[in-house]
């Protein structure tokens, strides 16, 4: 998941992005989500545990020096996320310093155990995988991680066997597999149909709907929780609507921004458990999480959204 700062550019073009606001963690900790707009939650099929439908990705945004301006801004993002009811934070050893930064910042804030930490194993060989996962736990400040996924199916059979053992031993709560390209969807489906796993993560967006052909249905059928990456198509969706206004009927679903338009389409599919857009901006995070509240589009609304995006 590669971050492109296109949403800010679009907002500036539309005249709604002012100067950067300054937030203090103490101020943000005192804020709570509006009680009349709680985050929608969906159950993890294997246990029934519920998760808020919008989380946070960390590719590039959290690969920063552990101290300094960028890390300070990320503290504000994490505190705001907790205040608004967000929970899932997805990372990977592939994401540079992200795991360490997430662990350090949440521990500094005293909120390390308030999130659902999902990370990945991204290496080859059994012992290398074990060493990497132990390192991830150390960096993220946990003795048990909520979810470990085999990143992009790398040596997935080896790591999945280890993960099943770890789950039995209580070292990880949930296990899964991931990828980020349409070409991998059929392989993901084969695996979730043949293996006992809790989560599958893949790409899905308003203009990249290959997952609707079979994969989303298979996940629902097999009772596998779904995490969605690349919801904004690396910023391409924002570039496509740059300078354009939302259709008037978007208000029927409480949609106030293009980000919410894109995210509500994804969440509108009941097979999706949580979508994980990445951001290092408090305003963008707030906007994203609000997509997980209120009315979701029904099948007619989803079709209207898909038809509309083809016209821009």
TrEMBL record:
Pfam families: Aldo_ket_red. Residues 54-298 form the NADP-dependent oxidoreductase domain. InterPro entries: AKR2_Oxidoreductase, NAD(P)_OxRdtase_dom_sf, NADP_OxRdtase_dom, TAT_signal, TAT_signal_bac_arc. Gene3D superfamilies: NADP-dependent oxidoreductase domain. CDD domains: AKR_PA4992-like. This is Aldo/keto reductase. It comes from Dyadobacter sandarakinus.
């Amino acid at each position: 998941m590669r971050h492109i700062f296109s949403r800010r550019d679009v907002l500036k073009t539309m005249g709604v992005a002012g100067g950067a606001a300054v937030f203090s963690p103490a101020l943000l900790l005192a804020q709570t989500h509006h009680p009349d707009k709680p985050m929608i939650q969906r159950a993890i099929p294997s246990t029934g545990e519920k998760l808020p439908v919008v989380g946070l990705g960390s590719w590039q945004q959290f690969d920063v020096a552990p101290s300094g301006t960028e890390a300070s801004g990320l503290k504000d993002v994490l505190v705001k996320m907790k205040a608004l009811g967000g929970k899932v934070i997805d990372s990977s050893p592939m994401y540079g310093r992200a795991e360490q930064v997430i662990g350090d910042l949440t521990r500094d804030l005293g909120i390390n155990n308030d999130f659902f930490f999902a990370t990945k194993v991204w290496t080859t060989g059994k012992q290398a995988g074990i060493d990497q996962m132990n390192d991830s736990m150390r960096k993220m400040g946990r003795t048990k991680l909520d979810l470990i996924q085999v990143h992009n199916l790398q040596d997935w059979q080896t790591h999945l066997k280890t993960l099943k053992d770890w789950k039995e031993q209580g070292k990880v709560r949930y296990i899964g597999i991931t990828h980020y390209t349409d070409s991998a969807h059929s392989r993901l489906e084969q695996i979730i149909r043949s293996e006992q796993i809790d989560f599958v993560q893949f790409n899905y967006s308003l203009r990249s709907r290959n997952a609707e052909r079979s994969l989303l249905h298979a996940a629902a059928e097999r009772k596998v929780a779904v995490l969605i990456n690349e919801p904004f198509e690396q910023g391409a969706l924002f570039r496509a609507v740059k300078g354009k206004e939302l259709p008037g009927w978007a208000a029927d679903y409480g949609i106030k921004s293009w980000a919410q338009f894109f995210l509500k389409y994804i969440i509108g599919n009941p097979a999706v458990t949580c979508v994980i857009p990445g951001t290092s901006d408090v305003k963008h995070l707030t906007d994203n999480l609000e997509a997980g509240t209120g009315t979701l589009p029904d099948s007619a609304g989803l079709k209207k959204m898909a038809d509309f995006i083809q016209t821009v």
